[in-house]
Design a protein that fits this description.
Blueprint (H helix, E strand, L loop, with lengths): L5 H25 L1 E3 L8 H26 L10 H19 L5 E7 L6 E9 L3 H28 L7
Antiparallel strand pairs: 1-3, 2-3
């Protein structure tokens, strides 16, 4: 547990968001490659770190929202759940667009009448079946968070000044 000022927390939030964005670019660019191309990044490690940073960002956003609402004790109410749910939804959107091309393809090489066919083999670090499993796991977690959010909403009462 680290103590931040709001200014420090907002700067850290922006740093984390930048790290996540860069990691997503690397994973998207390097996940599927021609078998003959050299490996330029440890896609698995970058992806795993991106997921960790996304969860950190959700927690930090929840803490910032709680602080902005004047909730400064350890119980941050619903904010952490709402932000984690949003980050998981963003991760699912990313996973749905992740290039997972694998296998052999026939590619045309050359120009006009001199076209030649070349067989190219693609490999993916994170394959489509793993993407599908990750999406299902994150969707399950989102649904659990939604149940907690719904319970909070049902049990929370407040007054609105007239």
């Amino acid at each position: 547990m680290k103590t931040f000022t709001l200014t420090q927390a907002l700067k850290q939030k922006n740093r984390l968001a930048g790290e996540i964005s860069r990691a997503r670019e690397i994973v998207q660019r390097e996940n599927s490659r021609k078998q003959t191309q050299p490996v330029r990044a440890d896609v698995r490690a970058v992806f795993d770190e991106m997921v960790i940073r996304s969860r950190e960002l959700a927690s930090l956003k929840g803490a910032i929202a709680a602080a902005n609402a004047g909730v400064l004790d350890g119980d941050r109410g619903i904010y952490a759940r709402l932000n984690l749910q949003a980050e998981l939804r963003g991760l699912i959107v990313f996973l749905k667009t992740l290039n997972t091309k694998e296998g052999e393809e026939l590619e045309r090489v050359g120009f006009l009448s001199r076209d030649e066919a070349a067989r190219t083999i693609y490999v993916a670090t994170i394959a489509r079946d793993e993407v599908d499993r990750l999406i299902a796991a994150h969707q399950t977690e989102i649904e659990q968070l939604q149940d907690e959010i719904d319970a909070f909403n049902v049990n929370t009462r407040f007054t609105v000044p007239a």
